[in-house]
Design a protein that fits this description.
Oligomer: single chain
Radius of gyration: 35 Å
Shape: elongated
CATH class of the largest domain: Mainly Alpha
Order of helices and strands: HHEHEHEHHHHHEHEHHEHHH
Structural class: alpha+beta
Number of strands: 6
Helix content: 55-70%
CATH topology of the largest domain: Multidrug efflux transporter AcrB transmembrane fold
Length: about 425
């Protein structure tokens, strides 16, 4: 029974090859028409969705929770998170405000910019949101340095500060009357004066001085949230916006210890997609070039090489059109299907071409060699097509939509590569 099936399939394949050979113009016309229609379907129906959240089924519990979070707090989603550090909290805050100002007024690239603590309400009332355990020691420090701050508020001059420090030093408790901050204040003022004498003006960071003694390293880092106007239909959805954030960060005035870094889910995703796009392009072109080189080395025939490569490229267009009609989008995984197709699509072209060359070496006429090659390898190609398609169809039942869509498109790739 097995032999009968193989013989029947072989005769069908031989008939297809013979019909194509005897009607070349009709065959080319039909193939060209199908290729054009597939190209139109791919161009009009196939979109790109690079959002990693939509790689899984929306029915999963965590996707439902995430959707609710998106609805409740849309401003917290898809942000660049810019971390600004400096030697003092004042310098970090000033750099963050400067960077926010550079980014504002560009709705083409940014839909939302948020610097926590920059709102005037929180500047005036932020202390009321601290825990009582934090307020009490802070109140004690304010009580001790209150006279010093009051004098500076009335007349913010260096002479006023030095006079107040001298008065504190001449008092009964000396600088200890200012509490543990006395020595820090004196050291900070001395450092500011020395910087001024070197023509490197540096402000006294009063916020840091009135806080508990800091540890070594950058103090009070600032976090700036930047939400780009992301177009998820592009392979590099926010690459230009990310580049502008980094350019603006480089334009921020230098400050002691200033360091600005960009992270966040949207920044990481954008760089991932940019890397994927570049690697996919390089891998696709490199694999095609290697396939052409191997084909020419093995076949030693320009006619067979051109026929196989054109068939491969046409099959790639057919697969893209099929994906556009049946799936309608490409995700982070399925954008790599061209590389997969090149590897899958060329092997059966090699089988047919090598079978034809073997027939020619047996002194079979060209017409007969083509027909017999279809008869000899036709059944094998069909069974391999079915087995490969079944393997890719096994991806479809998963809740991981990205893998399921890859199975659908890759099945089409395997079918189209062998249909030629």
């Amino acid at each position: 029974m097995k032999q009968t099936v193989e013989q029947r399939l072989g005769r069908v394949a031989a008939g297809i090859v013979e019909t194509s050979r005897t009607h070349p113009r009709f065959t080319l016309l039909v193939c060209a028409l199908v290729t054009i229609l597939a190209a139109v379907a791919a161009a009009t129906q196939l979109s790109v969705d690079t959002d990693p959240d939509f790689m899984t089924s929306p029915d999963l519990e965590f996707r439902k929770t995430n959707a609710a979070l998106r609805t409740a707090f849309p401003e917290l989603q898809n942000n660049f998170v810019v971390l600004i550090e400096a030697e003092s909290g004042d310098a970090a805050r000033a750099a963050a405000e400067e960077l926010a100002g550079l980014l504002e007024g560009d709705p083409e690239h940014y839909s939302y910019i948020y610097l926590p603590g920059a709102d005037p309400f929180f500047r005036d009332n932020g202390f009321f949101y601290l825990d009582p355990a934090e307020i009490e020691p802070m109140a004690e420090r304010f009580e001790k340095v209150g006279p010093l701050l009051a004098a500076l508020a009335e007349r913010p001059r260096l002479a006023t500060l030095l006079a107040a420090l001298s008065a504190a030093g001449a008092s009964e408790g000396g600088l200890d009357s200012l509490g543990s901050d006395g020595g820090r204040i004196l050291e900070s003022v001395a450092a500011a004066v020395e910087s001024f004498n070197r023509d490197e003006p540096a402000a006294v960071a009063w916020d840091d001085l009135l806080s508990p003694a800091p540890s070594v390293g950058p103090q009070n880092p600032q976090v700036l949230f930047v939400q780009p106007t992301t177009d998820l239909s592009r392979l590099d959805p926010a690459l230009e916006s990310l580049a502008k954030v980094r350019a603006a960060a480089a334009a921020v005035a230098p400050r002691p210890g200033l360091r600005i870094r960009v992270t966040g889910d949207r920044a990481v995703h954008t760089e991932e997609m940019s890397l994927l796009l570049n690697e996919m392009l390089v891998a696709g072109l490199l694999s095609l070039a290697l396939v052409i080189l191997i084909l020419f080395s093995a076949l030693k025939s320009f006619r067979l090489l051109i026929a196989t490569v054109l068939t491969l490229l046409a099959g790639l267009v057919w697969t893209a059109g099929f994906a556009g009609v049946l799936v309608g989008r490409l995700n982070m995984l399925t954008t790599t299907f061209p590389v997969l197709f090149i590897g899958l699509g060329v092997d059966f072209g090699i089988h047919f071409a090598m079978g034809y060359l073997e027939g020619r070496r047996r002194s079979e006429p060209t017409d007969e060699a083509l027909r017999l090659t279809g008869q000899r390898v036709g059944s094998s190609l069909l069974f391999c097509t079915l087995s490969t398609a079944v393997g890719f169809f096994a991806f479809i039942p998963t809740s991981y939509a990205g893998v399921a869509e890859l199975g659908i498109i890759s099945h089409a790739a395997s079918a189209r590569s062998r249909s030629w």
